[in-house]
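hey
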């Protein structure tokens, strides 16, 4: 285990090295952009303004002022960051820093629910799975042809987490390596290696993939296989301990290594059980996020994989992915492409008669007596997690053009108002955002503008407030949100910068500056609302679990029209909360959000000035 297990695979001719970018220029060849310290501290104060009680603001302002003053800790740490040499991107420690050792399902992993499919029997399931694989592989081929190539591709396809003693790492293909030609397929808790590409890396036709899945199904009968996949859904320190035990055995190293380096995983699930949430949107969402428990399909997962597609026998389909590695917008684009690819292939499963070559290979494991109790603990954990997660889904079809405002910004503002109506105050809120255009492999947090959102919430609840005033406040909040978005996408966000300053103090062995010990800072980083938004032509449901026990995860899918000239297709909203917390209720926040969207939509339709022709 001293060497990285990511050393396999045939190598292509090494590509010519890219020209080095000058220091200070963001991008793959240069130093990451470093925001100005004063700007970051100003943004922090703006966040705290709407969260901290008036009597505590003076103390917080004083600590921020002392931290940023000449000769203070802030300028010294900022200079230390400026002198750091560029480093390769690592798995983000934050905002998952507090939850990284928590289980991946729900707590870290995100999901996408595909439109429900309709087929008569298992043959339809396998034929759709074959076409979906072909569509995903076609998307990957198109990505590899882009110039310049997308830097995240080799982490997403063939990527996998590895549990470590202190933090996780992501295995990925080294530059110039030939991508593996196979995927991992799981059925009845049994793992198979299925060849998906030919000698030159060309994807196999859907008919050959379907024939391979048919042969796999005949071999993967029920029973006889311990549900090792459940272990990957355990707390990271528990799974890491078992992982190190398993990897001592040569057979286990080979089988786990094949899972890790496969392009992606595919789960062929049994029908959703009524006890696991039923076949409604909430039950389907649970199947994608966690598999429904040990008695349902949780054993059909390898949660460490960056990408895992789910095709259920009853038409339940989705994707579970690692948002620390791949962006939700990319997953939605991939699904759109794959489903469109499926439509251009023959729908009849009769074409699966082509002989698979080579046949699927079952991955086998050598398990010692110490493994069985760990599997039983993982069963209890996944069952408890499945019972504790509540998902409330609703579609909002009336969400229109937003009077020229950016729809994602309007939704983020609406979420703040909905939380205020539900709990009587605002909370720390974030939307993890990929920085792939300026810092490949890194993320930052997009926060909503607190004070403008609070002013709008008060105005909407005031029966005496004029619609004109409400509209002005809405536009101010949305414009502030749009400015924040552009800052974060340019690498100038405050959250990642603050965390880097904190880590610099720790690395230097210095006491943490008082600003990071202030209760106000703890309040500002206790994210009770974690959101994610994507656009999708297919009307997918986006799933995101809460970051904290008393929080919510909200996924919003914007249904993009097939023709850009057509009006938007509305929203698909999924609100997730833990039932063990009596302060949160997914349906209550969902109902409040639906009401706010109605109010804002009416305000924009009836009181916005007419747009220019």
């Amino acid at each position: 285990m001293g060497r990285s297990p990511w050393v396999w695979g045939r190598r292509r001719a090494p590509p010519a090295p890219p020209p080095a970018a000058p220091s200070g220029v963001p991008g793959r060849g240069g130093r990451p952009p470093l925001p100005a310290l004063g700007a970051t501290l100003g943004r922090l104060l703006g966040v705290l303004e709407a969260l901290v009680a008036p009597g505590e603001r003076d103390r917080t302002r004083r600590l921020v002022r002392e931290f940023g003053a000449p000769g203070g800790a802030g300028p010294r740490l900022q200079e230390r960051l400026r002198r750091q040499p560029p480093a390769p991107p690592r798995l983000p420690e934050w905002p998952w820093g507090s939850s990284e050792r928590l289980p991946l399902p729900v707590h870290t992993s995100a999901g996408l629910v595909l439109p429900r499919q309709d087929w008569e029997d298992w043959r339809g399931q396998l034929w759709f799975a074959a076409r979906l694989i072909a569509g995903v592989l076609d998307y990957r081929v198109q990505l590899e042809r882009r110039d310049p190539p997308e830097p995240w591709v080799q982490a997403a396809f063939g990527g996998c987490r590895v549990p470590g003693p202190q933090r996780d790492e992501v295995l990925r293909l080294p530059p110039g390596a030939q991508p593996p030609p196979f995927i991992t397929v799981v059925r009845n808790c049994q793992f198979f290696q299925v060849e998906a590409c030919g000698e030159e890396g060309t994807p196999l036709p859907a008919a050959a993939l379907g024939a391979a899945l048919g042969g796999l199904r005949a071999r993967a009968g029920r029973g006889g296989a311990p549900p090792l996949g459940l272990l990957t859904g355990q707390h990271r320190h528990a799974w890491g301990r078992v992982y190190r035990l398993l990897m001592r055995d040569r057979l286990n190293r080979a089988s786990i290594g094949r899972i890790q380096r496969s392009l992606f995983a595919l789960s062929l699930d049994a029908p959703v059980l009524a006890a696991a949430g039923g076949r409604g949107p909430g039950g389907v969402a649970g199947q994608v996020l966690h598999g429904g428990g040990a008695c349902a399909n949780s054993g059909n997962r390898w949660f460490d994989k960056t990408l895992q597609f789910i095709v259920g026998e009853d038409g339940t389909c989705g994707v579970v992915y690692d948002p620390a590695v791949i962006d939700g917008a990319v997953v939605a684009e991939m699904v759109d492409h794959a489903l469109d690819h499926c439509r251009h292939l023959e729908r009849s499963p009769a074409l699966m008669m082509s002989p698979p070559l080579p046949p699927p290979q079952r991955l086998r494991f050598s398990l010692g007596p110490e493994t069985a109790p760990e599997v039983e603990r993982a069963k209890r954990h996944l069952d408890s997690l499945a019972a504790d997660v509540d998902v409330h889904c609703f579609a909002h079809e009336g969400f229109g053009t937003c009077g020229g405002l950016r729809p994602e910004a309007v939704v983020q503002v609406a979420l703040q108002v909905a939380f205020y109506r539900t709990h009587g105050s605002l909370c720390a809120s974030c939307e993890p955002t990929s920085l792939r255009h300026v810092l490949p492999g890194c993320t930052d947090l997009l926060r909503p503008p607190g004070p403008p959102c609070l002013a709008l919430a008060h105005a909407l609840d005031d029966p005496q407030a004029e619609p004109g005033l409400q509209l002005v406040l809405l536009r101010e909040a949305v414009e502030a949100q749009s400015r924040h978005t552009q800052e974060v996408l340019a690498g100038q966000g405050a959250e990642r910068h603050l965390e880097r300053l904190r880590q610099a103090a720790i690395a230097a062995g210095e006491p943490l500056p008082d600003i990071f010990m202030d209760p106000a800072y703890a309040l500002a980083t206790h994210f009770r609302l974690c959101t994610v938004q994507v656009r999708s032509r297919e009307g997918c449901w986006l799933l995101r679990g809460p970051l904290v026990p008393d929080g919510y995860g909200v996924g919003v899918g914007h249904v993009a029209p097939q023709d850009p000239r057509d009006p938007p297709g509305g929203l698909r909203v999924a609100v997730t909360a833990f039932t063990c917390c009596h302060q949160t209720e997914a349906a209550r926040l969902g109902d409040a959000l639906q009401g706010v969207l109605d109010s804002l939509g009416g305000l924009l339709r009836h009181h916005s000035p007419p747009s220019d022709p």
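Residues 122-144 form the longest helix (23 residues). Residues 192 and 362 are 4 Å apart (CA to CA).
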